[in-house]
Specification:
56% helix
């Protein structure tokens, strides 16, 4: 797009979808693995410290249990588990260190194409009347 604001939004959305995918592949699968172990031990959903009195086996419809076991074994292996912990810890500290550098608000000039006639007006407003973001009032008849 020719509008920089749309381009920046698209990049942020793409990064968000990528991180969502990574979380779904790692964290969600790990939580499903823990839930599978809870079901095998006949524990309740909410109060997982209490065992259910009656015995029932895990349902293996469509071999979900076997697939989850493979994912759990891969995620909990001696190499992958520390790598994932280091990766997410590094991302946490990187995010914390980048937080002070985030600017508040959207620069008005980013919302316009490069050849817009309003760019000169916004630059003049920034240079001569640097008092904050402009406020617009729309008045309708009636």
């Amino acid at each position: 797009s020719t509008m920089p604001a749309v381009r920046v939004f698209s990049l942020y959305a793409a990064v968000a979808v990528l991180f969502d995918f990574l979380l779904q592949v790692t964290v969600f699968v790990a939580l499903l693995s823990l839930d599978s172990k809870r079901q095998e031990n006949n524990r309740y959903d909410i109060l997982c410290c209490i065992k259910e009195p009656k015995l029932r086996g895990p349902s293996e419809g469509c071999s979900v249990y076997s697939v989850m076991k493979v994912f759990a074994d891969v995620l909990l292996s001696e190499f992958i588990r520390p790598a994932i912990i280091c990766l997410f810890t590094g991302l946490l500290f990187l995010s914390i260190s980048a937080t002070p550098n985030i600017d508040v608000g959207l620069d008005q000039e980013l919302a316009l194409p490069k050849d817009s006639y309003l760019l000169n007006w916004f630059s003049d407003m920034k240079q001569y009347l640097n008092v904050g973001p402009p406020v617009y009032f729309v008045v309708n008849e009636g």
